[in-house]
Amino acid sequence: MAQDPKETGPKPSFPKQQQEPAGQTGEMRPQPDHGEQSYRGSGKLQGLAALITGADSGIGRAVAIAFAREGADVLIAYLDEHEDAKETARWVEEAGKRAVVVAGDISEQAHCRSLIDRALSEFGRLDILVNNAAMQRTYESLEDISAEEWDKTFRTNIYSQFYLCQAAVPHMKPGSAIVNTSSINAKNPSPQLLPYATTKGAIANFTAGLAQMLAEKGIRVNAVAPGPIWTPLIPSTMPEGKVEKFGANVPLERPGQPAELAPVYVLLASSESSYISGALIPVTGGRPML
After folding, report:
1. Rounded Cα–Cα distance for residues 199 and 205 (Å)
2. Is 196 labeled as catalytic in the residue annotation?
3. Where do the H-state alpha helices sit in 3-132?
4. Which of 45, 95, 144, 217 sits between 20 and 30 A of 86, alpha carbons compared?
């Protein structure tokens, strides 16, 4: 379980650990908190259908659990982390909602279109699209970044959002919502995460522009900007030394847990945010985004 943010005393320090990208939840120490034991729904998304990319683990899993407990059926899109995806599906089904699990590479336009088609065929509707999946790698110098890695990062992180939105919007009714995952890196880029940070800035801009484009259709578009969040991306893409003190450099002096992001996604997906569109909501442990 996550440390209670209200607790005082020594700040968390993680054991040194490293995984191969994109990482597995079961190998993380400590285990992330996705809200499995804490999130309580109140019907904010009752009867709706959602598609969440990167829903096998991390923020995506926390959002899937919260959406299901709020009453939504969920399509869990992921790359190839099959065991993690099954675990997310188990929590969705335990909430009494339908879970559809689909593996594949969202950097490919054809797969993005097939995800939308699958959601429509399974649920008969699509009310919420959460573009959350991302590729992240750490580099020490510009020369370390290959053209192939740069291209793959853009295709995974931002091209996929364009592909999915373009395929989904014709089927979304007024009142539907798109929620994109950006990052604190959109405005405070880490030089070691140059390709990732650049795409996150693009996502913030894409969100702001698309929100204006879709306003006349009654579809809201917003983005969440996480700070340091304890997900499989961290031990699988950062050096051990950085993992050990991950999150210590924000004002709250700790990393966030995926469970601490989920309520923001619920708000932006629900009718309670009916006058919010084009926003970038920071969840950063107190680090400002100005």
Report:
1. 10
2. yes
3. 58-69, 82-94, 109-123
4. 45
**Tokens at 26, concatenated:** 């079961």
pLDDT for 27 beyond 80 = no
Instruction: Output phi, psi for 104, to 5 deg.
Output: 150, 170
pTM: 0.91
204: tokens are 């913030």
Select which of 39, 78, 159, 196 is catalytic. Answer: 196
pLDDT value at position 5?
Answer: 44
Where does residue 10 rank: exposed (0-12), middle (13-18), buried (19+ CB within 10 A)? exposed
The pLDDT, as a whole number, for residue 124 is 98
| Structural domains in the chain, sorted by start | 40-283 (3.40.50.720)
Compute the Cα dihedral for 165, 167, 173, 174 and give only its sign: positive
**Coil, strand or helix: which one is 87?**
helix
**pLDDT at position 227, please?**
93
Over the stretch 30-43, which tens digit does the pLDDT of each residue have?
A: 778 999 999 999 99
